[in-house]
Amino acid sequence: MGTGTGKQQRRGNTRQRIQDVALELFAEQGYEKTSLREIAERLDVTKAALYYHFKTKEDILTSIFDDSTRPIDELIAWGHEQPQPPSLDVRKQVLSRYSEILVDAAPLFRFMQENQATVRDLKTGESFKDRMFGLYDILKDPDAPMADQVRCFSALFTMHGGMFVLKDIDGDPEEKRKAILEVAIDLVTQAHSGD
Amino acid sequence: MGTGTGKQQRRGNTRQRIQDVALELFAEQGYEKTSLREIAERLDVTKAALYYHFKTKEDILTSIFDDSTRPIDELIAWGHEQPQPPSLDVRKQVLSRYSEILVDAAPLFRFMQENQATVRDLKTGESFKDRMFGLYDILKDPDAPMADQVRCFSALFTMHGGMFVLKDIDGDPEEKRKAILEVAIDLVTQAHSGD
Amino acid sequence: MGTGTGKQQRRGNTRQRIQDVALELFAEQGYEKTSLREIAERLDVTKAALYYHFKTKEDILTSIFDDSTRPIDELIAWGHEQPQPPSLDVRKQVLSRYSEILVDAAPLFRFMQENQATVRDLKTGESFKDRMFGLYDILKDPDAPMADQVRCFSALFTMHGGMFVLKDIDGDPEEKRKAILEVAIDLVTQAHSGD
Amino acid sequence: MGTGTGKQQRRGNTRQRIQDVALELFAEQGYEKTSLREIAERLDVTKAALYYHFKTKEDILTSIFDDSTRPIDELIAWGHEQPQPPSLDVRKQVLSRYSEILVDAAPLFRFMQENQATVRDLKTGESFKDRMFGLYDILKDPDAPMADQVRCFSALFTMHGGMFVLKDIDGDPEEKRKAILEVAIDLVTQAHSGD
DNA sequence: CATGAATGAGTATTCATTCAT
DNA sequence: CATGAATGAATACTCATTCAT
């Protein structure tokens, strides 16, 4: 049998490999600056092979996005089943679960964050925005004072920003994640007690 | 005769007009997706004319950045003159002044935020990052617990994010700015009291 | 159970179906602009399947052409058996029979007419031209004055052109065909009486 | 001074040269099969140079067409000033003038004739068709019997077809043109006397 | 101060074709 | 009988940049 490496082993999983390499390069260099030539070369296939698996460049991105995004959709769906306005506990849970999702989908989120301008007029961009507001919808209490609404947004931003800036900072990743989550939870807690 | 509008009036300030139009387009569509042809066309000059005023495309961006960024440099310089670790009052003042700077330089910041991937390997990108860490350096207390450090970062992020997300939200701009500033100040205050 | 429509029913006649769809698309959009992907998709088979039935794209066209063209070959063969120069009656019969052939093979002829440039350096193109001159050979009298030779060509052209332009014009198709045939016969009649 | 050949001399007339070479190649090989690379190579410039002068490939064709087509527009305009239905003399003059126009614009017309399928969904195709019907409108008498209407169309077709088929035939070009014109005039004369 | 003309390197995308299964 | 996966070569088009005038 023998687990052949190289050209042999890669049958059937080309589609997946394209997505992996593409996301890696998109995150590293940006969407516009990553050419299909580059992706193809790194996979050691021709550009045309990419077009066998995906209809367009945008389609590659979309497919990655749709696959990684399911957990968030589930979280949003769960949130919408909860009573409105949300209890503090629901808010905390949302943040907590979101924090874990972010860790898994880190490269994609980093990409989204850093390529907003590019992605804005792609379908992917719209979906992303929708999801952000979807989360915000769950956290927010529309009757709360403005500062408390800001706090909810801020909690989300803290988590996003934190994920990617703190890598330039010393410390254990898991510990950092927890610190970030703590601050975010603090923010919604204050927003809640303001009621 | 007469002062004439249009082509006549725009003598001598072409350089400035290029910067204005360029920033507008960069912010609207992204740096990569904005071509020099587009900038030139909107100004009703030829592409070659742009090269009379600026050495490269990047140079246009750099020049805009350097011009709009001075107030931040001054703020950082002022901050560094203050004793370390910073008093709560200093922290508050930094955020407050930064908040005003952000309002004025909104398009540039929006651009920076949305084009990180692109701008990362431009000189401009480096400078921007330096400035962010410059501000953070002033706010932070290296001996504080991690959560408090996160709070300082979070304060900065809240301000950045707030500026651009809250435009999708109802309410008077100045009021929103104040709410954002309030939350940011709250964050550093808590960070401070943790000492 | 049941004779089943769709995929089931189409056994064995795939080759024919390819030809039909191909001709339809070739006529509609032109040979170059019709891709094998398009043909395959419309038939709900893969491109590779086309290659099971035909060696090349050109081969598809050639096969259609060869199949639809037999009646003309027979007409030409018949014409060549007649005494030279042809009697007026022979000429009339040739036109008359040709008129009917044209009706049946309309899509192919339309295609040929509209894709001359493309088809010129395909085998098919050569064959087509040969056949045109074959017909002309039967009609013409090499000793007649030039104007009469033109009339013979004109008769042929009238029939070709007529078929495809008159569809943009009101009136019953069969009536139009007859009017066209009448004019064509008139032309060869005049050519003949000039002798 | 010296009339430098080669790269020197060709300043200012590049646009014209592109049109010339393009028409030559379009007519020779067809529109689709002529690539911009080929045009550029034959002119010894880069592809990008073509794009300095024309916005798209189609634009090259359109520009050629618009330039060569003016005489026909004038002829149509003149025809529309004449009383309706047209006198026999007007009809003859239209054909006669059209015959001369065709000689001058021969390559373009040959191209149009041979690339109908391709050109159909280009602006140029529409314009061409419009012009054909424009001429037909002048010649036709809507109240005449169908056969006479066919004769008018036939006259036009005879001229078009004649131009390009007769080159495969022996004889002096000018003499052939006259024979063709004679047949065409005969056709409209008959159509007229049928009134 | 600016333009007209051009370039070289690149891009995403499409196509006819092949072949092992 | 047909497909899934891939290729090589091409295509139209765009862009930042240059330079003589």
From TrEMBL, chains A, B, C, D:
InterPro entries: DNA-bd_HTH_TetR-type_CS, Homeodomain-like_sf, HTH-type_Tx_Regulator, HTH_TetR. Residues 35-54 bind DNA. PROSITE patterns: HTH_TETR_1 (PS01081), HTH_TETR_2 (PS50977). The keyword Zinc-finger does not apply. SUPFAM superfamilies: Homeodomain-like (SSF46689). Keywords: DNA-binding. GO terms for molecular function: DNA binding. Transmembrane segments: none annotated. Residues 12-72 form the HTH tetR-type domain. PANTHER family: ACREF/ENVCD OPERON REPRESSOR-RELATED, ACREF_ENVCD OPERON REPRESSOR-RELATED. This is TetR/AcrR family transcriptional regulator. It comes from Streptomyces alboniger. The lineage of its organism: Bacteria, Bacillati, Actinomycetota, Actinomycetes, Kitasatosporales.
